[in-house]
From TrEMBL:
InterPro entries: Bact_Sigma-Reg (IPR052016), GAF (IPR003018), GAF-like_dom_sf (IPR029016), PPM-type-like_dom_sf (IPR036457), PPM-type_phosphatase-like_dom (IPR001932). PANTHER family: STAGE II SPORULATION PROTEIN E, STAGE II SPORULATION PROTEIN E-RELATED. Keywords: Hydrolase. It comes from Streptomyces misionensis. This is Serine phosphatase RsbU, regulator of sigma subunit. The keyword Transcription does not apply.
Amino acid sequence: MPEEPRRPKAAAGRLALALEALGRSPDGAGPEELSTQVRQLALGQRRLRRLLDAVVAMSEDMDLRAVLRHIVEAATDLVGARYGALGVLGSDGEFVDLITVGVDEERMLAESGLPQGHGLLVGLLADLKPMRVADVGADPRSVGFPVGHPMMTTLLGVPLMVRGRAYGNLYLADKSDGAPFTDDDEAILTALASVASVSIENARLYEDLKQAAMHFQLRMLPELPDLSPLAVEVRYEPASELPRLGGDWYDALTLPDGAVCLVVGDVTGHAVAAAPVMGQIRNMLRALAYDHGGPPSLVVTKLDRALTMFTEPPTATLVLARVEHTGGEYVLRWSNAGHPPPLLVEADGTTHFLAPARHGLPVGVEPSFGRYDDEHRLPAGSTLLLFTDGLVERRGEDIDATLAELADQAARLAGVPLRRLCAELVTGRGQLFDDDVTLLALRLPGEDPVRTSGRATGP
């Protein structure tokens, strides 16, 4: 039979037995002392492996608070402490956040609040050196524990430095075996803090990049006009992971003939390249709809032809709609170019997906392809939802099921203000988005639903 691979524990045990059989080692150490040294070596190797695992976990996560929690959990595990905490400093030097292990963080913060500018922790930040305290209560720098804070006896803390400045402090209290903190504990915590500073800086840069991308994307999207007596609201949510630039867009405007024009579209492809293409298509479509007019199918046809000016014509899906007020009622006329169908939510919660009679190709695919219009009466008080596929497409889930889920949720929210409706439909489910998401909502005047007031705003 093949020989089983040697396990570290078994190898250490055999080495200890061999040393014991020899009786004495060349340097005069006895078998018990050598066995202790072997055990300490094995413990050090296990600590090193756990430290490396912690470094990998921190480097893989780009969410700043998740990185901070990784740091506290790794420190507590590596040293074998009962309690761990990481206090984060603001620009004014005061604590602005606290991440804990071993205590009820929410309850403690509610009862005690964040650490104050005095006591042992402030001394740690003032010296910017590791601190070990054998008896917290007896230390002259101690000011006691606030209400709701667990009693602690021993303390080991190190400052967290990011780019030469104190970002916060990492401290542990009371080892699980009751032993005091050692030089080895201090060394491994210092090593962890040093590595952690790199992960913290990376997470901060990642967060800054996300915010910059989001700001750039929103600057490319329009502010919604006042369409009274119609109420309009929009919600845009970028993809959960970088790059957070995408090809989603929306628009709403009053046309020269008094009709309201609505559009929601999605440029094919992702990343940085989709954003400027989105801006070009949005502006072209707006100009065609406003200056040339005509039914939605004609405007989309003109866009198809205009896209041929590109060497490699971009493609996009979209819904272009006209809301007309004639004969005392509102009528929706729209053309669908390969896009998810609009969802109509009546005042009583009845929902209808307005699927086109004939499905259209995305724009930019074939300029000679025929475009068609569909028409539907909009009841008083109803809400029209135009959205991109990022709202309903999820990995591993059937699109029909997610569309039905959207309709059910929209029906339950039929009477709430538009801003809340959009927020609940987009972010209320707490999901992560693989693609950017746009939701444009238009509500007709009526007695049943709650009307939003004032000028409609963007996301």
